[in-house]
Design a protein that fits this description.
single chain; globular; about 290 residues; alpha/beta; eight-stranded mixed sheet; Rossmann fold
């Protein structure tokens, strides 16, 4: 497991306060399956008190940034994404400077997309990911079986590539957060009594046509969902407060039938066929009173 727990060097945040808008504490990256539209439902279920906040499928981190926990451990199996979080936390100035040099041009986009991550420095790698995320179609992260980003250029007129306010606010929020590149089961070995854990795995598909799991070279299979449900029970036995979101299917309801299951509504925004976008039901599972 690759671990980064070092805190960023001291910076004078006060000199930056004028750059931070009142609503800037939002994700600095758009992620498929992001929870921005469900924030009201999620926040209303956050425990009144807890020790350490855990989010092992961090993605865009909508809930994390919304509640800005005092102490947190976040993780993801996507190495590019975790590198970006570490750079936002530790080197926001350098990242913003790198992003300021990118251009919203089609030929340039495909040149950047063709770069190999292993040939880039950590800052260049983070800047590349954020740039592609801001200028590709629908802000979708998707890779092929070789792990190469393959989403086409969107041609947006004025994408905000640098997102200075979000990166600075994100950096401040991440100061008391440990960031791991690891699987969910490995990270959650650290969770103990009264820790709060939010689980937002790649959703179990409602049909063979709704598979949007390929955020990494690896996929999240049915067996992984079963393993996660077992861990949910284990965490509950440890005295952890656990909240999970997933698709609303007979399979997912069966996995978590011993816990409280609430049905919520969300809009499916990512589909090449606009007619297939719309409101769908999802579930939120909790093992505590709120």
């Amino acid at each position: 497991m690759n671990i980064s727990i070092s805190k960023t060097k001291e910076r004078d945040i006060k000199t930056r306060v004028t750059l931070l808008s009142p609503h800037s504490n939002k994700p600095f990256i758009k992620w498929a399956g992001g929870k921005t539209q469900l924030l009201g439902e999620l926040i209303s279920r956050v425990p009144r008190s807890y020790n350490v906040y855990f989010e092992p499928f961090i993605g865009g981190g909508a809930l994390y940034f919304a509640i800005s926990p005092d102490e947190a451990i976040i993780a993801d199996i996507n190495e590019d994404l975790i590198n970006a979080y570490i750079i936002v936390r530790d080197s926001p100035d350098e990242l913003i400077e790198a992003l300021s040099k990118y251009k919203n041009e089609k030929v340039y986009f495909y040149e950047i997309r063709s770069q190999l991550q292993e040939n880039l420095s950590p800052i260049e790698r983070a800047a590349r990911l954020i740039y592609l995320n801001r200028t590709c179609f629908n802000g979708l992260y998707r890779v092929n079986k070789s792990g190469q980003f393959n989403v086409p250029f969107a041609g947006y007129k004025n994408p905000n590539i640098a997102q200075t306010d979000k990166i600075l606010a994100g950096s401040e929020a991440l100061q008391n957060t440990d960031i791991y590149h690891a699987g969910f089961d490995e990270v959650l070995k650290k969770a103990t009594t009264n820790d709060f854990i939010y689980l937002d795995p790649p959703y179990f598909p409602k049909s063979v046509y709704s598979d949007f799991k390929r955020y990494n070279k690896e996929q999240f299979h049915k067996e992984d969902h079963e393993r996660l449900a077992e861990l949910y029970d284990n965490l509950s036995n440890r005295g952890c407060k656990v909240m999970l979101s997933n698709s609303d299917t007979p399979f997912t309801r069966e996995l978590y039938k011993k816990w409280r299951i609430d049905t919520v509504y969300a809009k499916r925004m990512i589909n090449s066929d606009a007619s297939k976008r719309g409101e769908v039901t999802e579930i939120i599972v909790t093992n505590y009173d709120y």
